[in-house]
Amino acid sequence: MEICYVLDASAIINGFKINSNNNYTVPEITSEIKDLKSKLTFDMLIEEGNLIIQDVPNKYISSVNDVISMSGDILRLSMPDIKLISLACMLQDEGKDVKVISDDYTIQNTLKIMDIPYSGVMTEGIKGIYNWKKVCEGCKKEYDDDYPFDDCEICGSRIFKKRIRVNR
Ligand SMILES: [Zn+2]
Questions:
Q1: Ligand 1 centre from 63 Cα, in Å?
Q2: Pure H helices in the chain
Q3: Transmembrane region positions (predicted)?
Q4: C-alpha distances in angstroms, 147 versus 49, 105, 126, 137, 157?
Q5: pLDDT tens for residues 94-152?
Q6: How many whole angstroms from 136 Cα to the centroid of ligand 1?
């Protein structure tokens, strides 16, 4: 089954790559997209039919409200955020395979509690960015990749190459 993506404002602002036309969002999102570039992207997605704006019945909103009043996230979520999570619930209820795209920590936290799959754009973006570092076998001193020798200048042990994750 094809995955339905539910996009929040951060997904559009941070440039989520849209590869299908199974993308949904809520009408309230327009108030959260303020910069010109994101507005243009948003308008284009609507025009090309790749983003469906979908309102959500109240029953889904109240069940999300129940969850977030228990978790304490209710004070940190805006109305568009709550509607977005409700939309994901509604689509799941319709039997669809749903994934929410959001870089908002509070939204992600609520989705985790509700067992709804999610992913961030920024975090997705840094996945797979690795660098090589040279590390001494003996004293563990780290050298830059361009260190020209095979043994450590401190202890004389062998240096090996190690893949390291780059955090930005
Ligand atoms: Zn060493």
A1: 58
A2: 9-13, 36-47, 58-71, 79-93, 105-114, 121-126
A3: none
A4: 52, 39, 26, 15, 14
A5: 999 999 999 988 899 899 889 999 998 876 444 444 567 789 999 999 988 788 888 99
A6: 5
Sheet holding 159-165, edge to edge: 142-143, 130-136, 159-165
Tell how far CA 7 is from the center of its chain. Answer: 9
> Which range of residues forms the domain containing residue 148?
128-165
Tell me, in angstroms, the distance from the centre of ligand 1 to residue 149's CA.
12
Per the structure block, which two tokens stand in for 127? 């996945």
Residue-level pLDDT at 130: 54
What total of structural domains would you count in the chain? 2
Quick one: 36 and 117 in the same domain?
yes
Percent of the chain clearing pLDDT 70 (strictly above): 91
CB of 121 closer than 8 Å to CB of 101: yes
